[in-house]
Input
Amino acid sequence: MTSKERARLKGLAANEDTIVQVGKGGITDSVIASVNTALSARELVKGRVLESSLLSSREACESLASACGAEPVQAIGNCFVLYKKNPDKKPEKKAGKKPAEKLAEKPSKKPSKKPGIRK
Output
């Protein structure tokens, strides 16, 4: 994964809610199953390591990534982000205007700044 891709994923993850929590039980089969389910549905999963856990966020991120076949994106504080591309999911198209629509827009109604004529 390139640094530009990683930066883009970090930006997308900033708006996401935490889906997975790793507690004092550590990484169990149920945690791995829930991460796999979330990765297949969303591709990008944000997780959190609780203070009662014996793992750091980086350790949890690395072990979950290897268990799920995902890529670790970020581990900061007690949060981490994982990414796994879903081949079945169609890429989303960017919501933008077509070039013809841009030209057809009305110009803004700002007053023109023409110098006035003084007598």
In short: The first helix runs from residue 3 to 14. The helical segments are 3-14, 29-42, 57-68, 99-104. The CA atoms of residues 65 and 71 lie 6 Å apart. The mean pLDDT is 82.
